[in-house]
Target: Inactive serine/threonine-protein kinase scy1 isoform X4
Amino acid sequence: MFKFLKGVVGGSGTGPKDLPYNIGEPYLSAWGSWTHCRGTSKEDGSAVSIFSLSGSSSQDGHLAAGRNGVKRLRTVRHPNILSFLHSTEAEISDGSTLKHTIYIVTEPVMPLSEKIKELNLSGTQRDEYFAWGLHQISKAVSFLNNDCKLVHGNVCLASVVVTPTLDWKLHAFDVLSEFDGNNEASNSAMLQYEWLVGSQYKPMEMVKSDWASIRRSPPWAIDSWGLGCLIYELFSGMKLSKTEELRSTSFIPKSLLPDYQRLLSSTPSRRLNPSKLIDNSEYFQNKLVETIQFMEILNLKDSVEKDTFFRKLPNLAEQLPRQIVLKKLLPLLSSALEFGSAAAPALTALLKMGSWLSAEDFSIKVLPTLVKLFASNDRSIRVALLQHIDQFGESLSSQIVDEQVFPHVANGFADTSAFLRELTLKSMLVLAPKLSQRTISGSLLKYLSKLQVDEEPAIRTNTTILLGNIASYLNEATRKRVLINAFTVRALRDTFSPARAAGIMALSATISYYDMTEVATRILPNIVVLTIDPDGDVRTKAFQAIDQFLHIAKQYHEKLVTGDTSESTGAGLPSMGGNASLLGWAMSSLTLKGKASEQGSLTSSANASTTEVVATPNPISDVSSGANVSDQPRPSSPTSTDGGWGEVDSALLPEDHSSDKEGWDDIEPLEELKPPALASIQAAQQRPVVHQKPKSGSSFQTKTTKASKAADDDDLWGPAAVPAPRTTILNAKPPAQKDDDDLWGSIAVAAPRSTSKPLNKKTAATDDNDPWAAIAAPPPTTKAKPLSLGRGRGAKPAAPKLGAQRIDRS
Model:
């Protein structure tokens, strides 16, 4: 038969012209006279199985039974019955003779006997898998016998095939026929083709051809006997050769033995109904069967049952057969998450199962589901994705991240939940390297600019750390206009001390991106102020950073002395001792303020974070804790071809469009840090005393505030050139009295304002040379009233007049 099939499909690997499938290599075993081959669709290349049956003439008995099987397989549909796709019958020339061949195309399956050898299971895992398979075949037989009133007639190991998801399915319907005890012709197909069934699989009534007894028996009598034969072949590992072998029960599990004996009862009416075998058998009550059954009816479960199940699933999956978990449970779990029937904890189980796959299989079976989940509106799903993004982020391609993932993740930057905003921020550490330059400059930096002024101090701090870590992925023009403004104007002047410390560390970590002019004019002046910071850790990091940047200045000076005019950069500098802490997140999750209302909605998907500010020791790939900055050359501007955008040069981006400005250019300080009291006194002593009119001062302050607000709203980025450093003077002087020689006036503490009136106003008659005039009491502004007008001791009431008085009524 194999030689014949090879002759039919020789050379091209295709069958008849009207068969839209390619016939591949045959399997070693198949039911009856059929040949089971692998195949593919000519249209899309999808895998199929092709069964072929040949005969010398069209009236051949095998072909007649085969036509009955094709008709039955086409009309009977059940999840545990082989799915029919296509069939055809053709005449194939074999030299001088013609062969009639029937082709049946079905879903891709493999003979059960070969799949068992391939899986090579043993012990409890083998018993659990056999229990699941028998459960499926029993449901298929029960459906035929009880619901359709059909008799399969030849249930055995050869009539069962296995799908790629390790599901067992029943086929070989050549002898399938209707059962009607009152109709003598109801078993016509079985009467005609019962010779196709091996004698070892026939019950005693079929061996004796006692058809009258068969009609009086229940419809499941013959197939229950077949189920007993299947159980024996499964656990013995041998093909049944004669009926007497069924008496050997040493291979049968003890929990299944009573049911096995009832299936093989010598009296047909006493044989066990397959439906009762499914419901009552203790053998089917195991972890694998219960887990798969729960997944298949997941839509009928309530949220509490789902949540409990998925929280136990990661540990349960480790106890189940690994191949069954990957080929059966994993697809079920992916579909449940994709179509919304699974809860957020299912994502943890999905990623754990996915970690057992190869990188190629993970990209095919798991990643498409994860990418679709990023578009979910379920906040708990989004939280779970962001919490585990480090487990699958590296497997995402740059094009998928730039076009499909980031647009959905970016919604979390503006989410009302601070916890979700922080998770979105931290996810950029994994996603930013895969973004195109256009996406980074046009979208990501806008969000980071807003997060640097977030109400949560932890988010502000981590934004600074993120900028320091992704600096190498920014092009040179973007680094020039972003880094210094973000680290000095905002981070170093933040009211939260860890944010100031993060700003110092970010400047030190990105030291190779600044030239000497920026170091001397924009960086050092801002760091020096922090040497008197109230926080000791900030002061320590400030001194370390000053030493580091002064080392640059000394090197630059030595080059000038020796005549070397090459550009001085941060390469060749010793790394700051505390630099390693920049490389991880310096802040914990956002329960710094204990917002229970926000965290309450996320308790089912994410653990509440600690309320303390904790430094994270995990290093990042950009700068290692033990690396020396001096060994790192100044990186070139990265280019990106991700997402089909190609290299985006800064000159290609619009200069004056506000949509392309991320928000760090021309920024007013968030809030000036207050120096210690001693510094305030010294600064006040050096500043000349100026008397200002309250009205003019108020007007100037209003104009300054309006100008600052306009700069933030309208000019987010400004020109590409680096702007000169600006300092807003809180206590402005009139132009005529401005002291140009006062170098410290820009950072001096503003003079206290008072809305009360001065105690003494100068008048025209005041003598300027009188040193006491300033504190003299003002002249009285009221006139003395006569005593008669007041209520003093000398005032006497007028004496009342006696007698009638004339009343003037005019």
Summary: The chain is about 40% helix and 5% strand. Strands lie at 21-26, 35-41, 47-55, 84-94, 97-106, 110-111, 150-151, 160-162, 168-170, 177-178.
